[in-house]
Every structure is written in structure tokens, then in C-alpha cells.
Amino acid sequence: MARMFVNELKEGDQVDAVFLVRRKRLESFRNKPGQYLALQLEDRTGVIEAKAWDNGPELAAALEEGAPARIKGYVETFQDRPQIKCQGAWPVPLEEVDLADFLPTSARPVEEMTAELEGLIGSVEQAQLQALLEQVFTAETKEAFAQAPGSIRAHHAYLGGLLEHTLQVARLLEELCRIYPALDRDLLVTACLLHDIGKLQEYRYDTVLDYTAHGRLLGHVVIGTALVQRALEEVPDFPTDLAARLLHMLISHHGEREFGAPVLPATAEAAALHYAEYLETKVNQFLAKIDQARQRAPGQVWTEYDRMLERSLFVGLGEEE
Fold this sequence. Notes:
With 321 residues, this protein is of the alpha+beta class. It folds into 2 domains: 6-100, CATH 2.40.50.140; 109-246, no CATH class. 42% of the residues lie in helices and 18% in strands. It has 10 helices and 7 strands. The protein has helices at 56-62, 110-123, 127-136, 139-147, 161-179, 185-194, 199-202, 213-232, 240-251, 268-296, and strands at residues 14-28, 35-43, 46-52, 68-78, 81-91, 203-205, 209-211. It has a 5-stranded mixed beta barrel. It has a two-stranded antiparallel sheet with strand order 6-7. The radius of gyration is 23 Å and the shape is elongated.
């Protein structure tokens, strides 16, 4: 039997498949005693709501958030969206499933992106910056960097997303350095490769994409800056001014205090990093939302209103229109 994915489900489909339980909650019936179970299920193609109207408390006790479960039922439409009416649910051991079915991944091959990362590290000519990158990017760190998501929901929210995002920002910065030769190219590349390094500890990306407790408490800017500061101490004779300029770029890369930047960009390189990253994340968000709309509802002219972007996006007119 072919694997059933979320983005393929439509009204009337019979469901017998394994999904990850993203969220679960017990809700009270409005017109009678008792509770039903509301589930949010996901695989690598998307998320779908499910309702188990019978045996809610028993199913809630059996299923775990972030763990796979076999779901039986059928698809119905609720408020213009597909939803699974769950007739049965059972936990499934992790060793019996392929986790690649559940976590979205970058379209770019990992080997290709890792080779590009190696090339960027090797292209930095300033000796202390090169030494710093070698200090941070151990074999273990490179492996984690190639797997981590760029975010949980906002942009590049898939395995390999962090590396893909970082490489895209680096490409934009390379172009800026051609337009503005006065920019310090080595400093820009170094800061670009390090600006989101804290996300390796901020996120978990085993069975689900989510925040770690450490990540929720501190955030990747603080985590990453502390990591780079420790690495700087291991590089002999690292110039004090250069270290300050680099650390400033890391803590200011969000650009605005309302977006989590402790300080505002105060150098040309810091401004370049912030705006290049902002541009790359927004373009990725737009393209992802438009692509999702095309897959879910071919012919749809506008996406649904997106609260994060605070707008609907134009998908395109059909050939007839």
C-alpha cells in the first residue's frame, strides 16, 4: 500500500497511515459530558487536524506529542479545510518508521551544500578569521549544521534549511562586495557563516522541529555569541578590534530591537549582513507560501491570509483569466 501524505489527502479518503503527533489536547463536548481528542498531525508535506470523538481520554494517554502514531479514519472538510475523523489511533515505535517521511528536507543535496560551505571557509584569507572558522566548524558541527532547520515555522523550516539559508545569504553578500569593494569580504563571510550558529542548540530536529528548553530560555543570538566568544579565546593573537566588529555583527544581525537585536547595526558590514539575511528570509517565506498554495489548491489566485507576513500573497492568474 502506497504511503499516504498530508498534502495528498482530500475529502472522502480513507486513512490508514503513520503520522507524527505534533499537538494533542482534550476538549470538552459542548452538549454532553465527556471529552474528545483534538490532534495536530504532520509529515514532511504538511500538517492536518484530526478529531477523535470517541475514547478521547484513553487515546490521549496512549499517544505522545512528537512521537509517531498510526491513524485510521477518513477525511472530511471542516471550515473549508481537510480534517481527519479519527476512528482509531495507536502509538508506533520509532524504530519501525522512516523519519524522512515526517520531516521536510531541503531540495538541495546535502553533499552539494556541504562542499559549498567548505569552499566558503577555505576562501577566507585573513588568518585569524580562518582559524576561528576552523575552530568552530569541527566535523561534528558541520554534520549538525547540514541537518538543522533554518527556523521552526518562519523560513527554511526543514532539515538542511540552516545551511541552505546561510549559503544563500553568503551569495548575496558576495554580490554586495562586488558592488561595494570597500566592504570587508572576509569579515562578512565569517559573520555570515557564524550568525545563526546558535540555532544548533536552539532547535531540536529529531522527530519534530521544535525549540529546546535551552533555546527557549536564551535564543540563538545569545547562544551563538557565547559560542563564538569561547572559540575566539582559542585563537592566538586574535585582534581585539576585529573580534568586537565580528561580535557586533552577530548580536545586531536581526536589525531592530523589536526583532531581538540587542544593538542596532553600526558598521557597514553589520548593515549588509542584516539586510542580506532579511531579504533572503522574506523571499524564502514568499516562495514557500506561494508553492504551498499551488500544491494545496491548484488555480488559487491568492494565498490565505498569513499572520506572520500580515497579508495574502498573489499566486497568479489561471490561463483562462
